[in-house]
Prior knowledge:
Immunoglobulin-like, eight-stranded mixed sheet, five-stranded mixed sheet, 13 helices, 31% strand, disordered N terminus
Amino acid sequence: MTVRLSRVVLPLILIFLFLSAFQPPILPSENIENRISAPPSTGFKEGIGETPRERSLPAERTPLGPLSPITNYTIDAILIDGSHTVTASTTINYVNHAGVTFDELIFHLYPNAFASTPLVTIQDISYMGASLSYTVGGSDNTLLTVDLASPGPDTLAPGNNVTLELLYQIEVPESGSRFGWYYETSTSQPDFYTYQMGNWHPIIAVYDDRGWHTVPYSMGGESFYQDVATYDVHLTVPEDFVVAATGELQGITSGSGTRTWHWTTGPVREFTWCASPDFYTTSSLVRGVNITSYYLFEHALEGEIALEVAEACIPIFGDLFGPYPWGSLQVVETEIGALGMEYPQLVMIDRVLYGDYDTDYLEVVTAHEIGHEWFPFMVGTDSNAEPWIDEGFASFTEYAYIEYYYSYSDRQSYRGDDFDYYWDYVSDYGDDCINNSMDYWASNYGYYAYVYVKAPLVYDMLRFQVGNDTFYEAIRYIYEQNLHRNFRASDLQDLFEAAVGYSLDWFFDQWVFGSGVVTLNLDSVSVAQDGSSWVLSFNIIQEQITPVALWVPIQIVTEEGVVSTSVWMDAVAVNTYSITLSSFPDRLTLDPADLLLCQYRNWDTGEIPPRLVIQFLMIGAVVLVVIFAVAVIFIWYRRRQKF
């Protein structure tokens, strides 16, 4: 009996011990997101769960709006077409919302940046009818400093206001730019005569905790940073000119060979206008917004396309980011030497997009410029100190327009072009921080690559990290809390954290305030059977010097289908995962849709051996163990027989 029992029991014990070695322990799954990702209409998972620092939203989030009362400009301007000059008077009632007392006020004279000699001639600045002293200076003569000393009020205390009258004349240069006049006649293009009057009038500078904002005008990008004000403007132009402008048209009165267009605004950061005898228009009303497209007669089709894009953007962006707060929007075909330029309630689109390019470019550029209405015009940002905030956001709105007007797959295809461009640039020049100023970009390569391409990809990656619905809830929260006010990158993080309810240091430190390529290596992929389930184990190794924390999307192809989920990667060099599946996994892939700005090594390690191979190896190993056990028993038994 003893011999017979040992012949059976000993092999069974050995087989059990061997098979147990095939079952690796299932690691804790507390950092694993096991839900399937959201459907393509959303494209991103919701509710990531990791909340290191909980926060609560206010019970009611009423838009704060502008500080009250706000500055007001009353402008009377006459365009003298023959000499390309504008004679104007501005009455400004300026309200001091700073916490300091002023003895002088500083204005920007941006037109002076367009010539070596000043284009703006100040004729008089007065307070209650008495002329004040002033100086024009700055590196490009774009700063006007007005002394408030007697006969002025001497000082302007916080909360008080002062009314000044400025008389001036502007020489408008011949320039295919956002400020200037342009005329062209050719056999291949229609005649085109237009005035682009962006940043044209003396405008009060922003005073914040850094003092007066006095940076020079930037030709290569934007350097604008403005507080909101209201405008009441009368523009007198030749009678055959059509005017597009910021605000709401109150009426047109005829004079001797002229017409005067009267425009008023709510809180806006600039008053801009364009005028041409060659404009045709088409209009529509969407959600209470009067949208007008201005175009050349020969470009009627493109003019209609521009209108249709604006018609789509108002509800799409309004639902995603916050309601469009004004009563009108103008889309204007111009000659500006760039594809597009944004201003409050008015976007300039270069006419090259109306004739020489595929209309796809007209669509996305128009959507981009309209996206700027939210950042930096509804919510104010410093385009000189942190240009990525508004330019990156406007580029991100291109993705939103394509996704919700066309499809999610079209969006991802378009985004893929940016993704490829970014990595091509990084391979040649290395990575850089997006949170740099125009001063930095003026002396460094990469303004377009990082501000227009990497920045929207960072916004998009944040969208994935916090979830689609949560991301847009955060944007709407930022809109509600800062409508008609200004904010910075640090405020952006604080507001996002308030909206999502947890700290985002792990994201902003690397992708906004930091730089450097993050490289992930998929390693040690193995699979083992656990009863009727399969356990997939793998490591994600971070190869850069400083590990980062991140949600990493993964895709597992199984015999029953595709599982798309995400795993949380702590800021350590090696993260280990183990996932239990109901069917055999054939392949594991990191970030299959390129949602992260990461590089990857050893993609092929995700290829899992076929199930039959694994089973064959397991059976073969068991057979070898049985043979070995039988041999041991046989030898033991034979030796016992001898004794």
